Amino acid sequence: xxxPIGYFxxxxxxxxxxxGDIEAxxxxxxxxxxxSQKLWILxxxxxxxxxxxxxNYDPNEVGDDITPLCERLHExxxxxxxxxxxxxxxxx
Length: 92
What we know:
Mean pLDDT: 94
Number of strands: 0
Structural class: mainly alpha
Low-confidence stretches: none
Helix content: 40-55%
Oligomer: single chain
Strand content: under 5%
Radius of gyration: 15 Å
Order of helices and strands: HHHHH
């Protein structure tokens, strides 16, 4: 069973703000979105988190050793790419 946005974020239905807007537009479990829309939001979030240096992200800590692996991610199936995403989010 899918879990709602509030399970993962500091959000309670009715709180408003961006998470409230996302829930209203996309559904509490993103049920109003197709797969392409969900993947786009996922990519956009990752891009936003790495757009600038923060206390949680330092681009200088990303070594060149990871780049060749990332460039090969297209070799994986969608299922395996999603599995990597789940594994990474659980281990950050």
